[in-house]
Amino acid sequence: MSAIVLGGGDALLIVDPQVDFLPGGSLGVPQGDAVLAPINRLIDLYRTHALPVYVSRDWHPALHCSFAGQGGPWPVHCVAGSDGARFAPGLQLDDAVVVSKATTVDVDAYSAFNGTGLADTLRERGIRRLVVCGLATDYCVLNTVLDALAAGFDVLLATEAIRAVNVNADDGDLALQQMRERGAMPVQLTGAGLVADLALGAAA
Ligand code: VGL
Ligand code: ZN
Q: How far apart are the first and last CA of the chain?
């Protein structure tokens, strides 16, 4: 097993684990609730190692350009301050650092790095490697991972803690493929910690 040894320079980044992206939410991701248990285990793991946890949230103004009423592709979701924008109940986010994104009415931002200063924040804290998890694989996780890689961070992708919208049935698979091609390494959680997900060709 290729165990991942966590230490200084590591951080966990949880992408948009919000009520509107859970089944029953206004932009519910199929099986989106399946990410919650593994995310809590990841949070535990990072806390055990005294490593920082970051959590992004989609935090749109009421008339955001991504909403159908404004000509965008999505139903109204994650309006700043609304119930649907809250973090999923049951997530042990306690002292996680919150990163709000897509807060400007006329700009959409799928990536947690877009317009948030996150890359500088992480660098200032000496962070070099991220485990990324959350929702949704084919939008905000994808764009966050690609931006993290472009900004020079190493990226491990917790595959059991992501789920896709799949507007087209294979969007999630294509996103995963794209993230791997750019250098993200799929990892799995075991009782002991993180291991490279060899079934997904982590070594490729
Ligand atoms: C997202 C669609 C619209 C996401 C955000 O978090 O993946 N998807 N806004
Ligand atoms: Zn959004």
A: 16
Ligand 2 centroid distance, CA of 155 (Å): 23
Does the annotation count 101 as an active-site position?
yes
Q: Is the pTM of this model over 0.90?
A: yes
Locus of tokens 């997900």: 197
How far lies 188's CA from each of 44, 67, 83, 113, 130, in Å? Answer: 15, 35, 31, 24, 14
- State in Å: Cα 99 to ligand 1 middle: 14
Residue 46: what pLDDT?
97
Ligand 2 ion: nearby residues, β-carbon < 5 Å: 58
All structural domains of the chain: 2-200 (3.40.50.850)
What is the token pair recorded at 134?
């959350």
Measured CA to CA, the distance from residue 175 to residue 173 in angstroms comes to: 5
